[in-house]
Write a structure and sequence with these properties.
about 550 residues, alpha/beta, eight-stranded parallel sheet, 16 helices, disordered N terminus, binds 1-deoxynojirimycin
């Protein structure tokens, strides 16, 4: 976190100078969902220029890096995760020059930049797929079953619903674990490996500091593409190794990429990283993705999916830390992203819990990812009309779970409150950000917004919350400032302290963190002086009253 940032195109330095403890080990990384962050040209869709203009918000917030979701040339069948040209910017989002300027502007502010790479599949508009001969070498085509090949080659289901196979006019079938517009690549073909290494170098040359690897657990399929023999595959994703997810073969790819990233960084005196969007059944299997010779980080979706209960939180924290420690990696915490119900809503529709969960996450050792808008306490938008929805899962009748994102666990609210979003689809967490003003589009841009924003978001804008010490925005700013000020808080040791039932207490360098997961006040001997709290905490005669659903950092 304290390491100096190198310029986007630095002169080569002596190999090895970019190593060291690793800026990423404790970095707080902010996810910009480009389409919904800030719109500069009034078409209602966020873009790279808009993102650049709003970078000062991220600087003021105090994050270390920004992750930009795909802005590459794409028909947008899946929000840009269907890439037609990995080296071009989609006109919706701007130009390559805009990308260059954004990266440079971020670096000037001391923010690193991570971009998405989508290696499991391309768009069906990708030139490789458009060329029938090339397509048959570089994607997964198989003959169908049945008398005339009229049945799919196996029983795999698309994560978005329906079969994972589509038949072509030539009579054979191609695999798409996601939408039919997203054919899966054939990673047995060395040309696919070479192309993705070249794509990475292209963006590294433009100055990016790393890649978020989409579906990092999906590229390798079990030999022979065997049937699963189970009708409810959505429930199995993430619960067990499947013939298409978390196959051991993916690790060879990650090892090759780590060599590329280290080699590139070493030659330039910087550290460039890979973060796995990998969905593995256990913390131990997830940790395999962050072995010293693989990727640097892997999103901890087990933590994201944990219910708001002290025992469950403690055990997922313990399991995560133990698994990553066994391979010498930090844990990478996350509460929200563009695939899951925003955690304010997921945790029982409770802003109090959302604020407490965020303070807990930021007190844990390791790195943390913030999803745009969580610093404003935004809820999921649950009343979008069908005609504005764009999530392909909606149109295919699936639910956005598992490999798209961890399930939208509507049962996790201990009080049984309806915690889910809009039927498990993903548009409700992608509504454009409110920046200022009383009315939509709340400063999102000079035009409208591609998804309608709620009429009551005037009090949630960045402008409305700035300077209000009770606001969620100021809570995040204060937490991130303390993280910077307290050495060792990011990457140092952690131990549990005794606490009453329903309460967690953990000791970190420079502070003790208490979390009251119960819905009512809990009294306990004051562990120190309150530094920061998600809800007003009182200390009387050395007894602290922890408000229900709150988290407090104490100076000890
Ligand atoms: C995970 C991405 O986060 C999600 O948005 C996308 O739909 C799938 N991968 C497929 O690329």
């Amino acid at each position: 976190m304290t390491q100096e940032l190198t310029s986007p195109s630095p002169a080569p330095q002596a190999p090895g100078t970019g190593r060291g403890p690793g800026w990423w080990r404790d970095a707080v990384i902010y996810q910009v969902y480009v389409r919904s962050f800030a719109d500069s040209d009034g078409d209602g869709i966020g873009d790279l220029r808009g993102a650049r203009e709003r970078l000062p918000h991220l600087k003021d917030l105090g994050v270390d890096a920004v992750w930009l979701t795909p802005f590459y040339a794409s028909p947008q069948a899946d929000g840009g995760y269907d890439v037609a040209d990995y080296r071009a910017v989609d006109p919706l989002f701007g130009t390559l020059q805009d990308a260059d300027e954004l990266i440079r502007a971020a670096h000037d502010l001391g923010l690193r930049v991570i971009v998405d790479i989508v290696p499991n599949h391309t768009s069906d508009r990708h030139p490789w797929f458009q060329d029938p001969e090339l397509a048959r070498q570089r994607y997964l085509f198989r003959p169908g079953k049945g008398g005339s090949g009229e049945l799919p080659p196996n029983d795999w289901e698309s994560v978005f619903g329906g079969p994972a196979w589509t038949r072509t006019d030539h009579g054979d079938w191609y695999l798409h674990l996601f939408a039919p517009e997203q054919p899966d690549l054939n990673w047995d073909n060395p040309e696919v490996h070479a192309e993705f290494e070249a794509i990475m170098r292209f963006w590294l040359d433009l100055g990016v500091d790393g890649f978020r690897v989409d579906v990092a657990h999906g590229m390798i399929k079990a030999p022979g593409l065997p049937d699963i023999g189970h009708g409810a595959q959505a429930q199995l994703i993430g619960a067990q190794v499947l013939p298409f997810f978390d196959q051991d073969g993916v690790h060879a790819i990650h090892r090759a990429w780590r060599r590329l990233l280290d080699g590139y960084g070493d030659a330039r005196g910087k550290q460039v990283i890979g973060v796995a969007e990998a969905w593995a059944p256990t913390a131990e299997r997830l940790a395999l993705y962050v072995r010293p010779d693989e990727l640097h980080q892997a999103f901890n979706f087990q933590f994201l999916n944990a219910p708001w209960q002290s025992d469950a939180l403690r055990s997922v924290i313990d399991a995560s830390l133990a698994a990553t420690a066994s391979v010498g990696a930090p844990t990478t915490w996350v509460l929200s992203n563009h695939d899951v119900v925003r955690h304010t809503t997921r945790l029982g529709g409770s802003l109090a819990r959302a604020r407490a969960a965020a303070l807990l996450m930021l007190a844990l050792p390791g790195s943390a990812y913030l999803y745009q808008g969580e610093e404003l306490g935004l809820p999921e938008v649950t009343d979008l009309p069908d005609e504005v929805r764009q999530d392909p899962a909606f149109f295919r009748g699936g639910r956005a779970t598992g490999a798209v994102g961890p399930g939208t666990d509507t049962e996790s609210a201990p009080d049984g409150a309806a915690a889910g979003g809009q039927d498990g689809f993903r548009d409700g967490c992608r509504v454009p950000l409110p920046w200022s003003g009383e009315l939509p589009p709340y400063g999102f841009g000079p035009g409208g917004s591609w998804l309608p924003q709620p009429a009551d978001w005037g009090g949630l804008t960045v402008a409305a919350q700035t300077g209000d010490p009770a606001s969620t925005l100021e809570l995040y700013r204060a937490a991130l400032e303390l993280r910077r000020r307290l050495p060792g808080l990011g990457d140092g040791p952690m131990s549990w302290a005794p606490a009453p039932d329903g309460v967690l207490a953990l000791t970190r360098p420079g502070l003790l963190c208490t979390v009251n997961t119960l819905g009512h006040d809990v009294g306990l001997p004051a562990p120190g002086t309150p530094l920061l709290s998600s809800a007003p905490v009182t200390v009387d005669d050395a007894t602290a009253q922890l408000p229900g659903d709150s988290c407090t950092w104490w100076a000890i």
